[in-house]
Amino acid sequence: MSVFTPGQRWISDGEAELGLGTILNCDQRSVTVLFAASQETRTYSVRQAPLTRVAFGSGDRIAAAEGWHLIVDDIEEVDGLLVYRGETDTGEPAELPEARIADGMQFNQARDRLLTGQIDRNDWFDLRFRTLHHHHRTEQNPALGLAGPKIDLIPHQLYIADEVSRRHAPRVLLADEVGLGKTIEAGLVLHRLLLSGRAERALILVPDNLTHQWLVELLRRFALEVTLLDEQQSQAHGEANPFESGQLILASQQWLFANPHRQAQATACDWDLLIVDEAHHLDWTPSASGPGYACVERLAGRIPGLLLVTATPEQMGLESHFARLRLLDPDRYHDLSRFRLEEAGYVQVAAAIDALDRLPDDNEATDIVAAEIDDADSQALLATLSDPESADTQRDKARRQLREHLLDRHGTGRVMFRNSRRHVGGFPERHLHATRLELPSAYRRLLHTFLHGDDALDELLVDTGLDYPDVLLYLEATYRALGDDPRHAEPWWQIDPRVTWLLELLTGAGRDKLLVITHDRDTAVDLAEALRVLGGVFAPVFHEGMSLVERDRAAAAFADEEYGSQLMVCSEIGSEGRNFQFCRHLVMFDLPQHPDQLEQRIGRLDRIGQHHAIEIHVPVFAASPMEQLLRWYRQGMDAFSAPHGVGSSLYDAFGDALADAFLDAESLDEIIVETRALFETRLAERDAGRNRLLELNACRPDRAEAVIAAIRELDDDPALKRYLDQALDIFGVDSQDLDEGLMHLRAGPHMLDGLPGLAKGEEGFTATSSRQRALVRDDVQHLSWEHPLVREMMGRILDGAMGNTALALLNHPSIPAGRLMVELVFRTYCPAPRRLHVNRFLPPTAIRVLLDESGANLSSRVSFTGLAKNLRKVKKAVARDLIKSRHDQLRELLTQGEGEAERELPTIIEVAQQRMRAELDDELTRLKALARHNPAVRDDEVQALQDERAALDAAIDGTRLRLDAVRVIVTVDDSTKR
Ligand SMILES: Nc1ncnc2c1ncn2[C@@H]1O[C@H](COP(=O)(O)OP(=O)(O)OP(=O)(O)O)[C@@H](O)[C@H]1O
């Protein structure tokens, strides 16, 4: 066990890039180290601290914090701290206590290991060099973080993920229509932020019934392991804050929203990103916020990144929608009436975008566009576009750019992304099969009671405990609630013809599966019982009253292709967000009252991955309120044909009147006519204004295609297979090639411990680098440069000392035996906080220097690969003796190599700085131009980008080189013993 004293300098074995650490304090159990260069503090267990004491020897040159250097002559230890004495570069005598050594100083591991005879295998050295090379390449790929997930490359999702994850602390509403992949988009954003170091901790809040689906989706598709937290788990942490138990915490909204103590704990943690699924449930009115809204508001006030996810943002009304936007940006969304006004202005912007296509021939179109722009750059583009003399290519480019300007500067796309089926395309048709059934006498009697006037109705509401108009619509629930009535002795399902109708439908469906949704959870339970008793059919039930495990078991029993049940009965809310696209028949046992809920129901089946037309079966009782509701949906808004996104405003306008009209068929006709009129108006508005802009913003095909092309480049990279073969072999992973490009990986007997997904004695996993093959099988992982196993292996090599020294023999006809060469690999080293993601511009970069013993630089004449294939390994003991005997010569060559490499550093820094400036300056110009027009750009975004640029500039400027690895090569003739 090491003895630590505050003030001593140590480096991390695993994270050398943190720079020199200073011991802050130490007790019997733990030691805390400050890595000032990277602004990180780490606490380790004293017993197993992965730290190495930095102790220099005579002749070493040390950088002092003030910028000067000391050549060490003598070392003294005072109270556990070292004091170095020697001379400065200018020959002045000087003293340097270790506390004053520069934080950015590197401890040259490779050099020290070599000179102390710690020699690694030759193939490890090879792998190290190749790892640096591939890491350098892949870190700069613009698709980093989007290429690994096991998903189909769907343009609108990748556009959103790319656009959102580029932003500083993104705060957006992901509001694609039901089933278009919002969970995937949120997962992609999270994955990229994590991989690039821009986020480390995320809290994901989802409805109770979706926790497992998220858990599985994040693991299977994104290889992200999240901690699912509930009350039981939290209690197991005793006094400790359970939200600190993982980097990625997934929790149920119902649990957290109802529990102030846990909320306080969650709020007390540092998070980078908060994701809230099905965010339309966060309700708010000017007079009161729901508990969910209040909780998310508190968290959102402290967490920099926020993704709100909902398919039906306006389901709880425009006010609630506005309030959710306010969670994203409270400065921007503080005035509802102004917000409404702005929305009206989008019509002109959309018209201007459409007018671009009519230029240059249409003068009126020029005026329409001119009225919307006032920047010099946009005006210049318009001039080019309107000029009949401009070349076609020039005009096309100007049109594209102007379109971007209009969308960016005047549109809605900074905070909200909404794709619809209409423009994504490729979705199945929907067929409605409405069946009219005879009203059973018991239900007819109930309806008669309602007609007896308000008093009878009030009485019924009290007796049943139901709300109005539920009491009219869900007659089986009303019947059940009046169970004390002797006329209701039979269970409702004995008298309700929908049950036998359903059994017949099932028989006619052959082997097809049916998803049945009912409004009421007790109805769902009863119905499953009825199917069993009356038809001998087993149907799992799925509702919000069941535990998570029970729900997942039910869904699995339904999903299983071979042995699964043919139908499942769900309650309304219980099934929200679930994936049932393997099924194409939807039975709406009754209808919900809100059009968004109707869309949510259909969305269970009409999702990405649905390959058939969707058959929607609705049984209604003749002349019942439910039949009127069906008419309103069909005739008022074509609710079953395709989502149109305006249902919510129709409900706001007519919901109350409709409820009143259930008992009055004539007024219903009027309501339907008025609904239809408003529907048409809203559709026209949608197409003209905000929704048109939302649509245009939600996917910019050029950018989506560029991202896809970058992903494909990584997908098709032949180097991955070669690299994997070598790395797996060295790490001791057994790999077996299977058919169709699949491979099975399993821990070999000597595998290095702790590789993800592999443990000795266990099965291992099957994987493929083919995206398509991985997608068709749940049990097959997608192998890519972003796969956790590949990243772990690369990380271990780059962060550790593995393979950073080697010695090999070279038999070359023209070089006499006994000559020495050194192959030095230097690596750029740029201490900077992870959140800056400096690697995008300057990933660790290798500089290779090959020197012969006279000091001649052979690097450009002899390539790494050319040399490597002629080298022979040598026994470790022989290697050690060779090193010992050439100690002084090696020291000199190492120092000379350093000089050679240093000469290349300024160019590397300059190129990186140019790349950084080009990209960030562009982004800054865009953001500033945007901010002038579009209040959706937050001030802190512009400031953050400016700060980021300055910090990156300084960090890149401070880039140093360190010797990463060294291979000594000794020439031999054939007779030399190995
Ligand atoms: N790119 C993709 N590749 C493969 N499968 C996908 C992709 N995008 C979506 N899916 C699948 O389509 C289904 C719908 O996606 P997802 O759950 O993300 O949609 P959603 O918009 O969140 O739905 P909802 O509105 O119901 O919450 C899921 O089963 C998902 O796994």
Automatic annotation (TrEMBL):
EC number, as in UniProt: 3.6.4.-
Look up keyword Hydrolase and say if it applies: yes
GO BP: any one term? regulation of DNA-templated transcription
Q: Where is the Helicase C-terminal domain?
A: 498-658
InterPro entries hit by this protein: DEXDc_RapA (IPR057342), Helicase_ATP-bd (IPR014001), Helicase_C-like (IPR001650), Helicase_RapA (IPR023949), P-loop_NTPase (IPR027417), RapA_C (IPR022737), SNF2-like_sf (IPR038718), SNF2/RAD54-like_C (IPR049730)
Indicate the segments forming the Helicase ATP-binding domain, all copies. Answer: 163-331
KW Transcription regulation (keyword) present: yes
This protein's UniProt keywords: Activator, ATP-binding, DNA-binding, Helicase, Hydrolase, Nucleotide-binding, Transcription, Transcription regulation
- Which GO MF term does the entry hold, naming one? hydrolase activity, acting on acid anhydrides
Which EC class, in a word?
hydrolase
Tell me the superkingdom of the source: Bacteria
Q: Where is this motif: DEAH box?
A: 277-280
Q: Where does ATP bind?
A: D176, E177, V178, G179, L180, G181, K182, T183
General function of this protein: Transcription regulator that activates transcription by stimulating RNA polymerase (RNAP) recycling in case of stress conditions such as supercoiled DNA or high salt concentrations. Probably acts by releasing the RNAP, when it is trapped or immobilized on tightly supercoiled DNA. Does not activate transcription on linear DNA. Probably not involved in DNA repair.
Question: Would you identify the family this protein belongs to, as annotated?
Answer: Belongs to the SNF2/RAD54 helicase family. RapA subfamily.
Subunit structure, briefly?
Interacts with the RNAP. Has a higher affinity for the core RNAP than for the holoenzyme. Its ATPase activity is stimulated by binding to RNAP.
Q: What is this protein called?
A: RNA polymerase-associated protein RapA
The coding gene here is: rapA
